[in-house]
C-alpha cells in the first residue's frame, strides 16, 4: 500500500514519535523555524507564521495528504484543500483558545498585557478557523471541557507519548549527590510555579533530612532569580541542558523528584519520571495523582514516611503511564480518529486501515 504524505508544523517531539512509529504508513515532514535553542514566543511566533504563509504561497502544503498544525498562530494560515485531511492541535497556553489560563500565574506584567491584547485581537478569528479542520486535538485532559464549551464540542484528547525505550527503570544511572537527592528537572519559568517545589524542599525535606540536596535545571526565565536565592553550594546543584538519555540516567540516579505546578495537567516531564519508577510530587488534577497544590506537602510527607504507600504510589504511576501514554496506545488511537477521513478523503477501506494499527510496540 502506498504511503500517505503527512505535513507537520511545530512540536518536534511529536514529529519524532510519529516518524518512528508511523514510518511504515506515512512519509512525515516537519516544518518550523530553524531555531536550535529555547526561543521567546515574541521571536518564534512571527517567524513560524510567515514560514507557513510562504509554504502555502509556494504550493508546498497543498501537495500533502494530511496536514497537522500544532501552533495556533498558523491556524490562521490554514486553507481547506479538497481530499486533504486536516488536524489542529492545541497545547498548554494558546492564543484564542486557552491563553487566559496563563494570566493567572504569569508574573511578567508586560507579557501579560501584550498577551491579552493579542488574544483579544486574534482570538475570535482563531476559534473560527479551528472549525474548518477535520480533527481537533488537545494535548492534556484538563483542556477538554473548556474547549468543548468555547471552541469545538468534538475536541479529542490525544495523550502525549512517553518514549519508554529511554525513560524506564533500567539503563544507565548517574547518581546525584545528596541523601536524599531531590531532582527538579523542569525549566524555571514563572508559569511553572517552581516556588511550590522549593517550599516543600525547604520546609519539610531539608529540615528532616539534613543531607538532602536539590538539583535544578540551569534553564528558564527565572534562573537568575533562583540562583541568587538558592546559593548554598552544598545544598543546591545546577545542571545544564542535557539530552534525553542523560536526563533519564539522572532521574534514575535521584531519590525523589518534583514535576510541574502550573495548571493541574500532567505534563511530559512528570510522566517521564513516573516511567522511570521514581516517586514524584507534581500538580496533576486530571489523570492519576489528583491532589490540590495546597495538599502536596502532606503527600510528600507520606511518601517519605510510609514505605508501603511509596511503593504502591510508584507502581500505580508506572502502570498508568504504560497503559495510557504508551506509544502503541497513542498510535492506534490516532489511526482510529483518522479512520473516517482516511475512508472519505483518501478512499481507504477498513481492511486497509486495520493494517495500519501498530501491534509491535
Describe the model.
There is one protein chain. By secondary structure, this protein is α/β, with parallel strands linked by helices. It folds into two domains: 4-161 and 326-354, Rossmann fold (3-Layer(aba) Sandwich), CATH 3.40.50; 181-324, Rossmann fold (3-Layer(aba) Sandwich). It is 42% helix and 13% strand. The chain contains 13 helices and eleven strands. The strands form two sheets. A six-stranded parallel beta sheet has the order 2-1-3-4-5-6. It has a five-stranded parallel beta sheet with strand order 9-8-7-10-11, sandwiched between helices. Strand 1, helix 1 and strand 2 (26-31) form a beta-alpha-beta unit. Helix 10 (296-305) packs across helix 11. The longest helix is centred in the first third of the chain and has 22 residues, at 109-130. The protein is globular, with a radius of gyration of 21 Å.
Amino acid at each position: 500500500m502506498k504511503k500517505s504524505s503527512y505535513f507537520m508544523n511545530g512540536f518536534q517531539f511529536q514529529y519524532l514519535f510519529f516518524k518512528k512509529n508511523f514510518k511504515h504508513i506515512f512519509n512525515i515532514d516537519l516544518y518550523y523555524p530553524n531555531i536550535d535553542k529555547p526561543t521567546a514566543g515574541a521571536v518564534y511566533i512571527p517567524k513560524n507564521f510567515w514560514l507557513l504563509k510562504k509554504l502555502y504561497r509556494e504550493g508546498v502544503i497543498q501537495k500533502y495528504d494530511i496536514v497537522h498544525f500544532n501552533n495556533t498562530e498558523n491556524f490562521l494560515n490554514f486553507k481547506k484543500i479538497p481530499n486533504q485531511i486536516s488536524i489542529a492541535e492545541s497545547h498548554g497556553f494558546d492564543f484564542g483558545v486557552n491563553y487566559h489560563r496563563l494570566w493567572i500565574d504569569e508574573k511578567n506584567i508586560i507579557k501579560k498585557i501584550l498577551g491579552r491584547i493579542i488574544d483579544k485581537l486574534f482570538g475570535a478569528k482563531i476559534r473560527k478557523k479551528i472549525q474548518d479542520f477535520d480533527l481537533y486535538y488537545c494535548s492534556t485532559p484538563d483542556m477538554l471541557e473548556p474547549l468543548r464549551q468555547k471552541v469545538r464540542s468534538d475536541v479529542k484528547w490525544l495523550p502525549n507519548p512517553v518514549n519508554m525505550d529511554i525513560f524506564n527503570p533500567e539503563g544507565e544511572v548517574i547518581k546525584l549527590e545528596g541523601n536524599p537527592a531531590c531532582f527538579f528537572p523542569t525549566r524555571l519559568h514563572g508559569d511553572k510555579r517552581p516556588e511550590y517545589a522549593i517550599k516543600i524542599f525547604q520546609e519539610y525535606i531539608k529540615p528532616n533530612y539534613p543531607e538532602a540536596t536539590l538539583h535544578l535545571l540551569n534553564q528558564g526565565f527565572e534562573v537568575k532569580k533562583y540562583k541568587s536565592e538558592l546559593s548554598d553550594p552544598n545544598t543546591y546543584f545546577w545542571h545544564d541542558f542535557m539530552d534525553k538519555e542523560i536526563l533519564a540516567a539522572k532521574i534514575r540516579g535521584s531519590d525523589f523528584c518534583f514535576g510541574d505546578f502550573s495548571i493541574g495537567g500532567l505534563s511530559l516531564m512528570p510522566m517521564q519520571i513516573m516511567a522511570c519508577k521514581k516517586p514524584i510530587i507534581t500538580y496533576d488534577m486530571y489523570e492519576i495523582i489528583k491532589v490540590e497544590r495546597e495538599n502536596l506537602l502532606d503527600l510528600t510527607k507520606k511518601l517519605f514516611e510510609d514505605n508501603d504507600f511509596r511503593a504502591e504510589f510508584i507502581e500505580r504511576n508506572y502502570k498508568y503511564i504504560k497503559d495510557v501514554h504508551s506509544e502503541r496506545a497513542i498510535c492506534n488511537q490516532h489511526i482510529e480518529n483518522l479512520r473516517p477521513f482516511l475512508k472519505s478523503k483518501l478512499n481507504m477501506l477498513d481492511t486497509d486501515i486495520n493494517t495500519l494499527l501498530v501491534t509491535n510496540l
